[in-house]
Amino acid sequence: MKTLPLIACVALLAGHAWAQPASQWEGFGTVGAKLLDVSPETIGLSYRLRVNAAADLATRKVVFIGLRTATPGTGPGTGFGTIDMDVFTDWVEYPDDLGHAGWPEQGYPHPGEPSLWLRNVDYDGVGRVGLRPMSAVARLLFPRQCAGIDRIDGARADLTSIAAIHQGSILGRDIRVTIIRQSLTTLPAELGWGHRFTWAGDVTPALPPGTYWPWLLTVETSGEPPVQFIFLIDELRGQYVVLDGGVSIRTEFFFRPDVPENFEGILQLLVWDVQTLREGETTWTPNSRWDYNEDATLGETAGYGFRTATYRGQPVLEVGHSLGDYDLVGDVLEIE
After folding, report:
1. In percent, how much of the chain has pLDDT > 70?
2. CB neighbours of 282 closer than 8 A, spacing ≥ 6?
3. Which tens digits make up the pLDDT trace of 21-52?
4. Burial 164-184 (b: 16+ CB within 10 A, else e)
5. Radius of gyration in angstroms for the set of CA atoms belonging to the chain, rounded to a whole number
6. 327 vs 63, which has greater pLDDT?
7. HEC string for the chain
8. Other CB atoms closer than 10 Å to residue 80's CB: what's the count?
9. Domain boundaries in the chain?
């Protein structure tokens, strides 16, 4: 990876097709599947992924691979924790830890080069989230910045999304992602967990003091050393994976009414070897069934979505675009 000057390399993506506000095209190209048979008190998730094809893309496409958490027994309105391990069809090159970078994410753009974006997303505006790389190598490969969530015209000004964006393309590379919840821990107010927004929309670098559930994420990418990160979610939202929809895959921008169909491009993402871990157990449980449960595209699903496939003789879940016929919402896809 080339080294860029600290200031000169920061180029705002606004105005480029890759930075269209998500809300502008909300619903277009959005299909989703959720993992079935998630056991109660699940504290771990492991899976493999690979971007096998990404070509001639006129606009950014996103595959959100999300882990949603909750703490049983908390009152209504507590909300959920959200850890995203997303695949974008681009990455942005930027210096280590931009802190509060502004929205959209800032950096030198690399469109058409798929990458892994790790994000701790605070959809409830609580402010009690954190993200820390566990080594200098992890910070080099996944520097952080906090751009918020679709901060358009002051909307969502208090919502934090601390992102660590992989520096480089993951095209044609096998990746294993493993995340395991750790023991409840109490932390003082301290720096080093990324920036976050307050309820007033101000930015603060200080983690609020309190009790948190840490989730340890390990990313193993072919051709790179394994790296680890700690995601913090406050004690009221972060104990277990949500049973229904706690593990999900959703797409965004797979269909854009402003882009000619022949410019939509090709994308093929594969997910396989999905396993979950229940608290108190040491053996991981294979999870092979996905419920194709969401289609917000008003019937514009031809040529993209979910289907079963094989990779090197291994059954996989394919998330694809312009590669043929795909299954229909309501189907249960068996990956075994």
Report:
1. 90
2. none
3. 444 555 567 889 999 999 999 999 999 999 99
4. bbbbbbbbebbbebbbebeee
5. 19
6. 63
7. CCCCCCCCCCCECCCCHHHCCHHHHCCCCCEEEEECCCCCCEEEEEEEEEEEEEECCCCCCEEEEEEEEECCCCCCCCCCEEEEEEEEEEEEECCCCCCECCCCCECEEEEEEEEEEEEEEECCCCCCEEEEECCHHHHHHCCEEECCCCCCCCCCCCCEEEEEECCCCCECCCEEEEEEECCCEEECCECCCCCEECCCCCEECCECCEEEEEEEEEEEECCCCCEEEEEEEECCCCCEECCCCCEEEEEECCCCCCCCHHHCCEEEEEEEEEEEEECCCCCCEECCEEEEEEECCCCCCCCEEEEEEEECCEEEEEEEECCCCCCCCCCEEECC
8. 17
9. 17-334
pLDDT at residue 7 in the model: 27
- pLDDT tens per residue across span 185-237: 999 999 999 999 888 878 899 999 999 999 999 999 999 999 999 999 999 99
Contact 116, 166 (CB under 8 A): yes
pLDDT of residue 19: 38
Strand partners, 67: 83, 247
Number of Cβ within a 10 Å radius of residue 146: 26
276-301 pLDDT per residue, tens: 999 999 999 999 999 999 887 656 55
What pLDDT is recorded for position 135? 97
pLDDT at residue 28, as a whole number: 66
Residue with tokens 């079963």: 308
Residue 23: what are its φ and ψ, rounded to 5°? Answer: -65, -25
Nearest one of 47, 316, 50, 40 to 178, comparing CA atoms? 47
Residues 6+ apart with CB under 8 A from 76: none
The encoded tokens of residue 323 equal 């590669």
